[in-house]
Every structure is written in C-alpha cells, then in structure tokens.
Amino acid sequence: MAEVAPFPAPDKGSASRAAANAMSAPPETAVASRPRDPRLDFYRGIAMFIILSAHIPGNRWGSWIPARFGFSDATEIFVFCSGMASAIAFGGSFARNGWWMGTARVAYRCWQVFWAHIGLFFFLAMSMAALDLYGGFDKSYIGSLNLHRFFSNTTQQIVGIFTLTYVPNYFDILPMYLVVLALMPAVMGVRKAGRWAVACLCIALWLLANPYMIGMGPDGLSLPAEPWSEREWFFNPFGWQLLFFTGFAFMSGWLPKPPVSRTLAVLAVAFLVFSMPFGSWKVFSWLNAAAPDLGETIRPAWRITDEWREKTDFGLLRYMHFLSLAYLAWLVAGENGQNLVARGTSVISRTWATVITLITKVGQQSLAVFVASMALARFIGAVLDQTDRSITVTAAANLAGFALIIGCAYGAAWFKSQPWRRKR
After folding, report:
1. Do the beta carbons of residue 8 and residue 251 sit within 8 Å?
2. Could you tell me the end-to-end alpha-carbon distance of the chain, in angstroms, rounded to an integer?
3. Are 247 and 83 in contact (CB under 8 A)?
4. What whole-number distance in Å separates Cα of residue 293 and Cα of residue 287?
5. In the structure, how many helices (H) and strands (E) does the chain have?
C-alpha cells in the first residue's frame, strides 16, 4: 500500500514537523497557524449527527449508532477531534506568544465553554418546565432529565450549577471538555521538559482515574456530580484527557504518524469485530440467540471486562477500540483527505460533494451545533411522544433534526464572519 499522510497530519506534508519545531521556537520565530485538516472537520461532523440521534429519547435510530456495536462511540470522536483542533487553535498561540498568552487564549475558550454549558442547562430547564406547565402531557419532562431536585431546592443547586459541583447526567460533556481544556497550560508547561514528560503526566492522570490498572482498587480520582450522593461526573476529565491529548499530540507532531500497513489494518478490523460481543449488549444478545453455548462462555467476560470498558473513567478497551477505528478512518480518507473529495460531474459525484460539504460545515461549528443538538434532541423526543414512533415518523424526525443542525452550522458561521463589519 502506498504511503499516505496520517489522519492527524495537517494538509501540508511538512506542517507537522514545522509545528513540532514551533513548539520549541521562541515566539518571534514561531510559524503561523496551520490550516484546518479537512478530515478533522468531516469526522467531527459525523460525530455531531450521531450525538443528535443518540440523545433523542426513545429514538429507533439510536439502536444503530456505533456505540451499539463496540466499546467506543461518538464521544470519543468528539474528544479526539477536539484535541486535534486545539493543537491548531491553541498550540500556535503558545508557540508564537509564549506560555502566558497561550494560557490566556485557553482561559478565554474555557470561559466560552462554561457559558455554553450554563446557557444550555437553563434553557433546557426552562423548556422542560414549560412543557410540564403548558403542554398538558401525562409525562413529566422535568423528571425525564432528573431535575426535580433542582426545582425543589433551587437555592442550593443553582450554586452547584455555577461551581460545577452539580452536574446532571445529560449536561456532563461540556464540563468534562472544560476541565480538559484547563489542563492544557500544565501540559504545555511540562512539554518544555520533553515529550516523554507530557506522556508521563497524561498517563499518570489516567491511572489515577483508573486505579484498577495498577491494582489500587476501584475508587480513583474523580469529581463529585451532586451534593446529596456519591455520584461522580459521568465523564471523568482525568480519564478522558488521555484521548484528548492523544489527538493534540498527533496534530502537534509530538507523536509520529502510524505506519501504513495492511497487517495493522487487518489487526484493527479483527479487534473491532471480535470485541463486538464484549462491547455491545446488542451483539452479545444476537450471538447468544444464535449460539447459546458460546454466549454462556462469553458471558463471564462481561464481568471481567467491566472496568476495562467503563465509559466514565475511559477504560483501556475503549481507548484501544477508538484507536483502531481512527486508524481505519485515516486509511479510508486517504492522503490529505483525498478520498473525501468528489471527482467528476455525474449526479453521484455532485451529491457526494454536497454531502461532504454539509458534514464538514457541521464539524467546523461543533460547539454551536453540539449545544443546539442537545436542546433539539429533547424537543424532537417530545414531538415523538405524541406519535406512534413508526419507522417513517422516526426517520422524518431524525432527518428534520439533521437539517436543523446543518442550518445551525451555517448560521453560526455567518455570525462569526461578522458580515455587518465588511466594507461595501
């Protein structure tokens, strides 16, 4: 197989080497920001569509998302690609302007993510309350998000919302992303001691979140999710930072590109296929129905691998599963994403080009689209509650949701361009 640029490599072949040099160069000699990798936005866009379908309550399509067939899911795509995007957006700031200005740049982004989280929570809390008050439905939509304690003890919980000591399950991705972003200045500071220092820091934090890996028991480093119980954040940032900084390291050139190998591709496929019964209850039930004896043999492995595939602390099997998927996705995309570019003037080519353009646009505006999709999913679920949830109705609801987040992406891009400031 001919050698191609790795999935995390930027568009220009020498850009990753230039980025690595820039990280150690003084600010006045640091290279300019690199262009966005088209593969980054394409795959992150796919994650946004999956996340929308996954969060629509009772959605038939949710039974066929990648999470139902393996250890990892769209969350891994989002976090890994966010790490890659952060290397472009923030890595250059550290290189050109020094540690303090780079830290200020990250702090500004954390500020944006924090208020996106606050806005999403209060908008949905208000919306669910409005549905309960004026909708006349038998179902409690406040209860569907487990927000009864917020409304019954608002004085305490509103403090928890703003201090991130109260993180309801549905609102847990952005807080995790915020904390991981906040770790970036520490990682960039340690980077001055060398790449291995960064690796040791990230692995040490991950092991603290997953102490069973070194025989230290089940309780690891985590953050409390609510004051009335011992529940922790559903996405432990100290575990998930490993995946984020893996993407960051690839895009920064700290990690070398993986070799293009047919053997590696076959091993990746084999791992994905043979892990299905262990990572997916759906696949296990199919296997158990087809071969009960084999199913009973595999069943104990569910208990054995429980911690290793655990989502909250980002278990090792999830990491391996996602890296296998990412390697295959990189091979499929081709050098600089050349396989994602439609060629020719046929109807199929033009249609494919349109699909690529729409998915990429969604990936470029991932924060705005994510916030919109989390709110939109609840409204689509409320609409579906008033139907028979037939195949046709469910398909129409999902496709309408896809159209709306595409519109959100284009709207966010338009506002970011600040067209009112352009000269005639």
Report:
1. yes
2. 52
3. yes
4. 10
5. 19, 0
